[in-house]
Amino acid sequence: MANKTKKKRFLAGIPPWIFIGAVVVLFPIFTFMITENLNRQKENTVRLLLEKGTALIRSFEAGTRTGMMGRMRSGFKLQRLLTETAQLPDIVHLLVVDTNGVILAHSDLSQIGKKYGNDLDLEKISATSSEQWRFKSYPDGKNIFEVFRRFAPAGGPMGKQHGRMMFNPNSKHHMHMQQDVLFDPQIIFVGLDMETIEAAQKADARHTVVMGIILLLIGFAGIIFLFLTHSYRTTKASLSRVKAFSDNLVENVPIGLIAVDDNQKIVSFNNVAEAVLGISIEKAIQENAKEILPIELLNQIDNPDIKQGIVEEEIDCIVQDGRSIPLQVSATLLRDEDQTFLGHVLLFKDLSEVQALRREIARNQRLASIGRLAAGVAHEIRNPLSSIKGFATYFKERYPENKDDQQTADIMIQEVERLNRVVGQLLEFARPINISRKPTSIAAIIEDSLRLVEREAFKKNIKIETRFLSPVNEVFIDPDRINQVLLNLYLNAIEAMENGGRLRVVLFLDEEKKWIKISVKDTGAGIENEELAHIFDPYFTTKPSGTGLGLAIVHNIIDAHDGKMKVESSPKKGTTVTLFLPISNRGES
User: Which residues pair with 329 in a beta bridge?
Assistant: First the structure.
């Protein structure tokens, strides 16, 4: 079945015009060659027979001359010489006629005296000494080659010859010639048997035709071979380009790709698959998929629904280092143009960032809902707080002699102010952040904001360090908002270092010079891993007196600048907060 398919593909790969063109070009050439060869063979045969007939005539004439020279002793008998000469191989007949066509001597005695050669111009033939020939057929279908010319046994000039015609006493048909008799010019005919020659001609013709056909087929095959060679080279070059393109595509496609053949061997494994699964390409190629791939991916290959088309699922895949990675997997069958099964193809994408974005969107939606709720509640709370603060101040001023009432009034006033600050932060968090960009020296902002916390840091024995690793020109930011962000980060860092430490602020550009990076690092208590994911949530705080809105507001301000924040922390080792602010000039908003 496979051989038939390959043969079918081979023939199908040759365009029909190649066969037609080869026939149109080669057939006339080889037909001409065969015809020329047959004609040449025929010419050679005629020449051979003509030479043979001429030699026989000349031999007969020589014998006649010799016989005529010895006539004095016993007399010369032409008929006897003719009959004996006719006994030679391949001679069908030998005869001599006069210019009137009367047979004077014949190898068949019964033909003497009859007419022969009336269809020829005997007068013209007798006037020349050159040999002539023709093909002649007997009534029984036998073909002969006949050579004839003027008969000149004496070798004298054209015209009359001396001789004597005498009848043999034993037969009226026999005759002999003596020198003293005059007679008219004569023509000699030699008929040669062509049976052997015709058999040889037929054999040669068959051989020529067969060789011509063989050469035609060889030429035809040569043209096809040249075409196939050219097609092979062209196809090979195209396949090389396609392979280079496909290999480059497989290697650089931004999703993982794994191809498994029908023997469960991995035949393709790209860089993304290597990075996601933690399996090197060298280790994976030509290995059994069941021994290399995670069971979650193998289950996609064994999914019975794959026979109906592409199977798409989101799975949690356990990779070699034990991590669980969310993947979006597409699995399908791999078939050729004849729908023969070749294997499976797996395409998968790491959904870790997608899920993080989903969580961020959900968080932002929650925060938006909380903000709208908080804004309404804050407005309702501020009015009672103002009243409470007013009554507390009134009672404090009316009863100055009662120290307990004074202390209670002070506590009430302080708590009202604290609640008012919380409500103010809540309103700030709930309102959209409005920023006013202008060209600002970010290094100056950092230095000015650090001066505001120097005294607090000095009290707690905290050393402040600054490092400006890259020269940064002015950027378009809201200096007041960025100053608010930095102060919030400094104060959080100082509060985390109760027993002293080091506060380091580093300013630098990224390698592509698209972002300004400000890193604020402390050596404080750090943040637990389970708490790190919630530090930007409103009202999430680990401080006894914190409101949980500071970092949430910081996050909103950075977002309003089209920036990013990254927090890294280790318990008891400290925390690093990195701000990413874009360099591009976006103008004022």
Answer: 313, 348
- Helices 195-252 and 16-69 pack at an angle, to 10 degrees, of 160
CA separation for the pair 82, 47 (Å, rounded): 24
Question: How many other β-carbons are positioned within 10 Å of the β-carbon of residue 585?
Answer: 10
DSSP 265: B
Q: Which of 164, 167, 157 is nearest to 183 (CA)?
A: 164
Instruction: Give the Cβ contact number of residue 363 at 10 Å.
Output: 14
Q: Please report the DSSP string for 125-168 in residue order.
A: HHT--S-EEEEEE-TTS-EEEEEEEEE-SS---SS-EEEEEEEE
Name all contacts of 22-29 with Cβ < 8 Å and 24+ positions apart.
Answer: 22/219, 22/220, 22/223, 22/224, 23/220, 25/223, 26/216, 26/219, 26/220, 26/223, 27/216, 29/219
Burial of 98 (0-12, 13-18, 19+ CB in 10 A): middle
- Cα–Cα dist 120/437, whole Å: 127
Q: Are 499 and 524 in contact (CB under 8 A)?
A: no
Residue 554 backbone class (left: φ over 0; alpha: ψ -120 to 50; beta: rest): alpha
- In 487-549, DSSP assigns E strands to 501-509, 515-521
In tens, the pLDDT along 491-501 reads: 888 988 888 89
Residue 535 backbone class (left: φ over 0; alpha: ψ -120 to 50; beta: rest): alpha
pTM above 0.85, yes or no: no
Q: Which amino acid is at 115?
A: K
C-alpha distances in Å from residue 442, one per residue of 487, 507, 512, 589 = 14, 9, 19, 19
DSSP letter string over 381-415? HHHHHHHHHHHHHHHHHH-TT-HHHHHHHHHHHHH
Sheet holding 266-269, edge to edge: 266-269, 256-261, 341-350, 324-335, 311-318
pLDDT digits (tens, 9 = 90+) for 223-278: 777 777 877 788 788 777 776 666 676 666 778 888 888 888 888 888 888 888 88
